[in-house]
Design brief:
Blueprint (H helix, E strand, L loop, with lengths): L2 E4 L13 E3 L1 E4 L3 H12 L4 E5 L5 H11 L4 E5 L3 E6 L3 E6 L9
Parallel strand pairs: 1-7, 3-4, 4-5
Antiparallel strand pairs: 1-2, 6-7
Helix pairs in contact: 1-2
């Protein structure tokens, strides 16, 4: 299985955020992305859901449910800004507008 690495690639500037390893990155915290996180959790698959701007009431209810799952991490306010892949891994850069790293 390919591992997604969230943060910045090797060789980044000093002080750059460390990489966070996860089995699956779900880009988008709408109903489909959040339902995907619930399904991944039911299969004990580690995931991170990133969402740049949550907006709807249904999504808020689903976000609360996903935030309580033991194998999922929910990061709202973090759009995907870059993706790079090789044979062994995928490196996905996610950061907020101020360059803040994932919680």
């Amino acid at each position: 299985m390919t591992t997604a690495l969230l943060g910045v690639a090797d060789g980044a500037a000093a002080g750059a955020p460390s990489l966070l390893r996860t089995q699956v990155l779900v880009a988008g915290g709408g109903p489909v992305g959040l339902a995907t996180a619930v399904e991944l959790d039911s299969r004990k698959i580690d995931c991170v859901v990133v969402e740049p701007s949550p907006q709807f009431v249904l999504e808020e209810l689903l976000r609360e449910a996903v935030a309580a799952l033991p194998t999922c991490r929910l990061a709202t306010g973090y759009p995907v800004t870059a993706v790079d892949q090789d044979d062994a891994s995928v490196i996905v850069r996610v950061e907020d507008q101020d360059g803040k790293q994932l919680p």
